[in-house]
Input
Amino acid sequence: MFKHWKRDIQAVLDRDPAARTPLEVVLCYPSFRAVRRHRRAHWLWTHDMKLLARLVSQRTRRLTGIEIHPGATIGEGLFIDHGTGVVIGETVELGDNVTLYQGVTLGGTGKDVGKRHPTLGNNVVVGSGAKVLGPFKVGDHSKIGAGAIVLKEVPPHCTVVGNPGRVVRMNDERVDIDLDQVNLPDPVKERIMALSARLDELERCVNCERRTQDAACSERAERIRILKEELENEDL
Output
């Protein structure tokens, strides 16, 4: 029990710069309280005391704003930053050192049976308001951007953004926990910028061609003027 306590406290201290002391984490952090109470509820659930487990889970939701179904399996070092509005479904499986921000939903699509909820690997970060829905796996060291809606499997070492979620970076070989939710790729913006650059290039080509044509026309007009003058002089 104390081994889990130490790991859970250290997870908060490592990933939240506002956390100063272990005592502050124990007394003030809803994430720590929710995880500790979930471990008790999960023990009750696996020992066939499901109603009591649900009572513990629902009381935890009222106290912390974090709803973790007692059937969910979570690894060590889970950190839920702020936590309000986080929902973790019954068949969710979380690896070690997972980080969830406020408003995250790890749920189902409503049409699956049995395994209905996602599995997150080790060192996965899920940004604020993201929704991961369905019985698939998010690979180790992957990052889900804030507000993304992920409906299909994510390979390891990937970054996913958008609605629906799109893999915009793969095989980023970082092995630490990357908590940066701001500097994520934006594929739509990158595509628009590429198109804008192409349009600028085409405009330059058109303008160059127009100047060339104008110069050629001017040269022809000058030749015609000279010929006219020569013809007039001959007539005289």
